[in-house]
Specification:
Helix content is 76%, strand content 11%. The radius of gyration is 35 Å and the shape is rod-shaped. It is mostly helical and 203 residues long. A hairpin with a 2-residue loop joins strand 1 (81-91) and strand 2. The model has no long low-confidence stretch (mean pLDDT 85). Helix 1 runs antiparallel to helix 2. It has helices at residues 9-78, 118-202; strands at 81-91, 94-104. It contains two helices and two strands; from the N terminus they run H-E-E-H.
Length: 203
C-alpha cells in the first residue's frame, strides 16, 4: 500500500528537491552502466584470447603427453608458482586486479641426463600456468564488474520507472490540490466580502 503523502507546501518543496536529485542521479547511473558494459566487453575479449592460448598450449603439449606421459606430469608438478604480482585499479567504482608479473620456483634439472625436449616443455608449462593465473584474475574481475553492472542497472531502472514517475505524480497531485484549495479560499473570501457589502447596503 502506497504511503499517504501530506498535501502541503512543505511536502511539495521536499518532493521537488527529491526529483531534482533523482534527475541528477539518473544520468550518472546511465553513464556507469555504459562504462561497465564496455569493461565487460573488454574482459570478455581477454578471457577468450586466454582460453584460446591455453587450448593452443594444450595442443602443443599433447604429442609429449602421448609419448612421455609420466615425465610430463612430473614436470607439471615440478613447475610451481612462487609469486604472482598484480596491481589494483578502480574502473567505474569497481576495484579490479591486473596482472603484472609471475615468478616460478627454481627447478633443478640435470641437463646432461634429461631429454632435449624438457626445457621446451618447462617453458610451455610456465606459459600455461601463467595464462591460467591471468584467467583466474579476469574471471574474478568479471564477477565483480557484473555484480556492479546489475546494481547500476537496478538503480537506473528504479529511478526511471519508479522514483521519478511517482515523485512527478505526487508533485502534480499536490499542486492540483493546493490550486483547488487556493481557488476555494479566494471564492470564500469573495463570498464573505460580498455578504459584508450587502449587509452594509441594508443598514
Amino acid at each position: 500500500m502506497a504511503e499517504k503523502i501530506l498535501m502541503n507546501k512543505n511536502t511539495l518543496a521536499a518532493l521537488k528537491l527529491e526529483l531534482k536529485e533523482y534527475n541528477v542521479a539518473l544520468p550518472v547511473f546511465e553513464m556507469k552502466e555504459q562504462q561497465l558494459k564496455v569493461l565487460i566487453q573488454s574482459i570478455t575479449e581477454r578471457i577468450s584470447k586466454l582460453e584460446a592460448s591455453i587450448e593452443s598450449t594444450n595442443q602443443d603439449i599433447k604429442p609429449w603427453v602421448g609419448v612421455f606421459a609420466e615425465d610430463v606430469e612430473d614436470l607439471n608438478h615440478a613447475v610451481k608458482v612462487k609469486t604472482l604480482t598484480t596491481k589494483s585499479r578502480e574502473v567505474a567504482g569497481v576495484p579490479i586486479e591486473e596482472f603484472e608479473n609471475i615468478d616460478f620456483e627454481d627447478i633443478n634439472i640435470d641437463t646432461f641426463n634429461t631429454p632435449f625436449w624438457v626445457d621446451a616443455a618447462v617453458e610451455l608449462i610456465k606459459d600455461q600456468k601463467t595464462n591460467l593465473k591471468i584467467l583466474e584474475l579476469e574471471q574474478h574481475n568479471m564477477l565483480l564488474v557484473q555484480e556492479e553492472l546489475d546494481e547500476a542497472r537496478r538503480m537506473k531502472n528504479a529511478l526511471k520507472e519508479v522514483f521519478i514517475p511517482e515523485t512527478e505524480d505526487n508533485i502534480r497531485k499536490i499542486e492540483i490540490y493546493l490550486g483547488d484549495v487556493e481557488r476555494l479560499a479566494i471564492g470564500c473570501a469573495k463570498l464573505v466580502k460580498k455578504k459584508k457589502q450587502n449587509k452594509k447596503a441594508v443598514l
